[in-house]
Amino acid sequence: MAQNDYETVDVVLVGAGIMSATLGVLLKELDPTLKLEVIELMESGAIESSNPWNNAGTGHAGLCELNYTPPAADGSIDIKKSVTINTQFEESKQFWAYLVEQGIENGSFGSPKSFITPVPHLSFVRGQEGIDFLKTRFQALTKHHAFSDMEYTEDRATMAKWMPLMLPGRDPQEAIAATRVMAGTDVNFGTLTKHLLHKLSTQPDAQVKCKQKVNGLERNGQGWRVSIKDLQNGGQRTIQAKFVFLGAGGAALPLLQMSGIPEGKGFGGFPVSGQWLRCDNPEVVKQHEAKVYSQAEVGSPPMSVPHLDTRVVDGKKSLLFGPYAGFSTKFLRHGSLLDLPLSIRPNNIGPMLAVARDNFELTRYLIKEVMQSDEKRLKTLRGFYPLAKTEDWRLEVAGQRVQIIKKDAKHGGILQFGTELVAAQDGSIAALLGASPGASVTVSIMLDLIKRCFPQQVKSEQWRSKLNEIFPAMAEVLASDAERYREVQARSDELLQLNEPAMA
Ligand SMILES: Cc1cc2nc3c(=O)[nH]c(=O)nc-3n(C[C@H](O)[C@H](O)[C@H](O)COP(=O)(O)OP(=O)(O)OC[C@H]3O[C@@H](n4cnc5c(N)ncnc54)[C@H](O)[C@@H]3O)c2cc1C
Question: What lines the ligand 1 site, CB under 6 Å?
Answer without folding.
Answer: 14-20, 39-42, 47-50, 54-58, 60, 189, 213-214, 247-249, 251, 255, 274, 323, 332, 398-399, 401, 432, 435, 437-440
